[in-house]
Structures are given as structure tokens and as C-alpha cells.
Design brief:
Largest sheet: 6 strands, parallel
CATH architecture of the largest domain: 3-Layer(aba) Sandwich
Structural class: alpha/beta
CATH superfamily of the largest domain: Glycogen Phosphorylase B
Strand order of the largest sheet: 2-1-3-4-5-6
Oligomer: single chain
Shape: elongated
Mean pLDDT: 94
CATH class of the largest domain: Alpha Beta
Length: 276
Amino acid sequence: MKLSILTEKKGWILHRKAEEIAQRVPGARINRGVKSAQIVYFINYGYYRQVGKETITIANFTHFNPNFLAKEFEEVARKVDHCVAVSNGTAKVLYELGIPKEKVSVIIVGADESFRPKVTLGIVGRVYPDGRKGEHLLRQLLEDKEVMSDLQIVSANSGWGVPVWNLPSLGDFYRSIDYLLIPSLIEGGPVPFMEALACGTLSITPAIGVVPGFSHIEYQVGDFQSLKEVVLREKESLLEQRTAYNSEIKNNNWATWAEEHVRLFERLLKEKKGVA
């Protein structure tokens, strides 16, 4: 199959789409090779240009804006041999413009498989020389593969040996994490516990300082095994909820998106050659 894809320059999302397809079609070219191509795919319709009569032309149609490029949207849909709509909504627009249903395929883009549910624990505060902040418990968590699977630990400040999230405010940090982690052995407050609770974020914490008087998720002070059990339990509970949403698009990723295109190209080539 000789395929040429015309799209935007490298570094933008439409070029990424072209790359995913090109990786699966040996010899495919991006933004070149039009004259020798059997198929030219325009991602999106705005990159359409006239090519040889023997070349199969396909255009990708994203959204329809009646106030911007509406004329081009319709004109290209009529000129190309086949239209790829990114959603059923876009396909409906094409049908309403009079494009035959057999000339339209809906191929929904998904998300890269690296996008998956993950639980985030956050730490706030300073580390002291006496070790009362429980940094040894944090190190044990970080070294435990079972704990760290689909989980990340971040901090609002340096000193903990974990990535630092520099958000506009401390409140934004509390609101961005799933739980505040308090590994402390001794505390008078702790203040971060109160701040997190004020932001609606629960803490995984031992019953120290003011903690027993407020809502929290408790483990035994200084006990790594107890902490691990609590973290695993809460992680699994959150992941179960999020996986329910993740499963809705489990078959929508870059690979499936590109492979659907390859099957479409192969079908159109066979139809052109008169092969059933």
C-alpha cells in the first residue's frame, strides 16, 4: 500500500495521528510522496488539495463550525472519495449535508495507553533531624513495588525525596491529591492535616495530635505494615471506582484508532480494484 498523509507540522496532535498510522503501513509518508501514492489521507479536511484522478482521497473531519470553514468542510466532503468522522456527531453533520452514509466511516480517537488511573498521596511540611516526621516510613513505601504500583507520592515542598508539585497555592495542592499522607511519629497538630481537611481531602494518618477528633483514615503510629495495609486498601478502592470509567474507552487507544484506518484503506483499495 502506497500511502501519503498530508497534515500539520511535527509536534502537533494531527501529526501525531499521522505518525500512528504511518507506523503501521510500511513505506507510508507524511507530508510527501503524494504523486506516487495510491491513497492520500488529509488530516484534517483543511489540508485537502487536488491530486491525481487514480488516487483514492480520504479526509478526516473533526468538528463542524458554521461560522468558520463551513464551506470548506462541505466542499471537501463532496470532493474526496471517503470521509472519516471523529465522532457520531460529526458523521450526523456529514449526513445532513447530503453525504451518503456509505461514504462515511466513524473512527473515534482514544487515549494513549499510558493514560490510566493512578492514586496520588501528598506530603506537606518539613523534615526534622530527629526523625519524628516518619520519613523512614515514606522510604519504605517508595521501595515497596506492591504499594507503588498505580500510585505516586508527591510533595508540596522539597526534602522528602519525592517529586515536588509546584502549584499556585498550597490549597491547590491539597485539592489535587487523593489523600494527604502523614507518616509522623509525634505531632502537636499537625497543621497540614487541618488544612487538607478544610479542602475536603482526607489524611492517611496515625491518631496523633488533634487527629482523633476529626475524620481521618487511621494506621498504627510508626508501624509500616499497618500503613501499607491501609494504603493498599484505599488505593484498591479508588482504582476500582476509576477503572469503571477507564473501561469505557479500553478499546479506544492509538493502536485501535490506527488499525481501523489501515482496515479502511485496505477495503477501499480492494473496492477500487473490484475485489469483493
